[in-house]
Amino acid sequence: MTKSKSFSARTLDANALKSFAHPLRLRIYELLDERGPATATGLAGLLGENTGATSYHLRELARHGMIEVATGMGRGKEKYWRVVPGGFTYGEPPSDAEAASALEVLLDDLVRQRGTELARWREGASRAPAEWVEASGFGRRSLRLTAEETAELRDQVLEVLERYRTVSDHREPEPAEGRDQPTGHVVIHFDVLPLGALPEDDPA
Fold first, then answer.
1. What is the pLDDT of residues 32-89, one digit of tens each?
2. DSSP secondary structure letters along 93-147
3. 76 in Cβ contact with 82 (< 8 Å)
4. Would the CA dihedral through 153, 155, 158, 160 be positive or negative?
5. Among residues 144, 148, 125, 147, which one has the least CA distance to residue 136?
6. How many other C-beta atoms lie within 10 A of the C-beta of residue 134?
7. Among 2, 7, 128, 130, which residue has the fewest nearby CB atoms (within 10 Å)?
8. CB atoms within 10 A of CB 72
């Protein structure tokens, strides 16, 4: 999810923004992204909700192209849902006031999610397999750049992320024992924050 230039990611329109900015839908999407395909019943158990509620919100997410039915899974009428490959971008700030308010909710939730994930890794890294700890990393750089250079840096990093996202999207789930190198759910946080462009706070 990114607010900057989109590569193959889908840009959410105003209606999708307003629909997505719902606490339960955000949590359902987060669980599907983290854990993979799931049913309305399975999600209801994880969230402490009834199946009718999760079914409704799954349909709403699907209506706006956020998720889709995972083909080849489930029996009979049982439906497994998955995140639509390719990801999405929030795009430019919308002119519609309601959509703009929804975007603020989504961005605040993104900040919350990142903080939760960072804290979760810091607290649990000591229990993770050594190869995953060695592959992880924290990074922060403070640079003096022009706006043009900043945008160029952002787009170049996003191109690298897009390349690996494509690899991930085309990888079929399979048991860990079926691979020489098992895959795992990896989260990459990338922010470009031109804090120097903010006005100075007024002295107290």
1. 999 999 999 999 999 999 999 999 999 999 999 999 999 888 777 889 999 998 888 8
2. PPSSHHHHHHHHHHHHHHHHHHHHHHHHHHHHGGGS-HHHHHH-----------H
3. no
4. negative
5. 125
6. 9
7. 130
8. 8
Report CA 29 to chain centroid distance, whole Å.
Answer: 8
Please say if the pLDDT value at position 115 is more than 90.
Answer: yes
Gap between the Cα atoms of 10 and 85, Å rounded: 10
Identity at 42, one-letter amino acid code: G
**Are 88 and 12 contacting, i.e. CB atoms less than 8 angstroms apart?**
yes
Between helices 51-63 and 40-47, what is the axis angle to 10°?
120
Q: Which residues are CB-contacts of 64 (< 8 A; sequence separation ≥ 6)?
A: 12, 15, 16, 19, 20
Give the number of residues written for the chain.
Answer: 204
Q: Which of 35, 17, 2, 12 is nearest to 185 (CA)?
A: 35
Residues 6 or more apart in contact with residue 35 via CB below 8 angstroms:
185
pLDDT band at 200 (very low <50, low <70, confident <90, very high): confident
